[in-house]
Amino acid sequence: MSNCRVCRAPVHEFFDFGRHPLSQAFITPEQVGDEFFYRLAIGACESCGMVQLLEEIPPEQLFHKGYPYHSSNSTVMRAHFEETARRFLADRLTGPDPFMVEIGCNDGVTLQTVRDAGVRHLAFEPTGVGGVRTHGAFFDAESAAEVRASDGPADVIYAANTICDIPDIGAVIAGADALLSPQGVLVFEDPYFGEIIGRTSFDQIYDEHFYFFTVGSVRSMARHFGFELLDAEWLPVHGGQIRYTLGRAGSAPVTPAVARLLAAEENDRLTDPSTLAAFADRVTRIRTDLRELLERLAADGKRVAGYGATAKSSTVTNYCGIGPDLVPFVCDTTPSKHGKVTPGAHIPVRPPAAFSDDYPDYALLFAWNHAEEIMAKEEAFRAAGGKWIIYVPEVHIV
């Protein structure tokens, strides 16, 4: 049994995915056999309810200059982050000399909009990014204090799909306390555990995501470190997320949305052992159904290609035992992945042209959270008789 990284109470394991590689460790065929593996297992804290991984990967091993994901590759995500920036400019960055900080800005799409509005900004981004002002350090109390000394207090600290990746979350809150103005806010959006349970989207569970937040667990976490959860907003991106707004206790009133979402979680019993056990049973069924489908298609001589060499796909292929014998290749738009093989499963990654040059009979959609955008773009595949295989919330063919 592990102890909670937030409150130190016992954490009870509810699923073990087995031995897994780093989800973004795409390697050349010559590097096969020289990979780092760890146990991908997940549990829930018996006290604060925080859902978390049981093994921790050092952040410098996960996030570095070769990190391959770029938000701007998706028009949906680019529009989402641009709109997020415009909201901050309208309601949070309205003072005489506002200052916004982003933790993990990826390719800088949010801060580019802030920059273009003439607002001071800074990104804590160890993977490197162009076009916006950056600081290469990881965000904590020491690095935040250095920025406050040079730039003054921040009105907004923002993070998207980043806070859940940081095991030492106390260091993040301490950094926010050191850098924020008295009325400043820490705003972050991450995958919502309620959606993971509801959709059985087990592939959201991989090494980069250490925490799987609920509104209740985030409120407990905030209070543990002297902050308060001021607002919570559901977002449709990435299969369902929540945007949390934290401020120092007493700095602003709590919105009614927090109480509504807390009541819904209480009704759904999100972290109750019976709910977690039922989730585990559904995940096991998906693995069985997906393997049986792929094996049947292979026996019938059907060609199946993967679509989207995502971090999520690493959980699916390694947990379900899917290799090149069942899915000979996966197509992806990221040039740095081309010519390499997927982590652990060693499925060759090819550029998008490999998909359309000779359409397969079926496409296994690993990037299911962008299904609408992808299917619209690949209408010719369907017109040619192609079919999509999707495994969330259950295995089905579209």
Describe the protein's architecture and organization.
- This protein is α/β, with parallel strands linked by helices.
- It has three domains: 2-53; 59-268, Vaccinia Virus protein VP39 (Rossmann fold, 3-Layer(aba) Sandwich); 274-397, Rossmann fold (3-Layer(aba) Sandwich), CATH 3.40.50.
- 34% of the residues lie in helices and 24% in strands.
- It has helices at 59-62, 75-91, 109-116, 141-151, 169-179, 193-199, 215-224, 256-268, 273-299, 311-320, 353-357, 371-377, 379-383, and strands at 2-3, 10-21, 37-45, 51-53, 99-103, 120-124, 134-135, 154-160, 180-191, 211-212, 227-235, 241-248, 304-307, 330-331, 349-350, 362-365, 387-390, 396-397.
- Strands 7-6-5-8-9-12-11 form a seven-stranded mixed β-sheet, with helices on both faces. A six-stranded mixed β-sheet has the order 15-14-13-16-17-18. Strands 1-2-3-4-10 form a five-stranded antiparallel β-sheet.
- Helix 10 links the parallel strand 13 and strand 14.
- Helix 2 (75-91) packs across helix 3 (109-116).
- The longest helix is centred in the last third of the chain and has 27 residues, at 273-299.
- The model has no long low-confidence stretch (mean pLDDT 94).
The overall strand count is 18
Query: Rg from C-alpha positions?
Result: 21 Å
Helicity level, as a percent range?
25-40%
Number of domains: 3
Termini separation comes to 41 Å
Put simply, the count of helices is 13
CATH topology (level 3) name of the largest domain? Rossmann fold
Shape: globular
CATH class of the largest domain: Alpha Beta
Main sheet: strand order = 7-6-5-8-9-12-11
- Helix and strand composition category: alpha/beta
Q: Mean pLDDT across all residues, rounded?
A: 94
Mind telling me which CATH architecture of the largest domain this is?
3-Layer(aba) Sandwich
GO molecular function, one term: methyltransferase activity
InterPro entries: Methyltransf_Zn-bd_dom_put, Methyltransf_Zn-bd_dom_put_sf, MeTrfase_14, SAM-dependent_MTases_sf
Domain C-methyltransferase: 236-393
Domain Methyltransferase putative zinc binding: 4-63
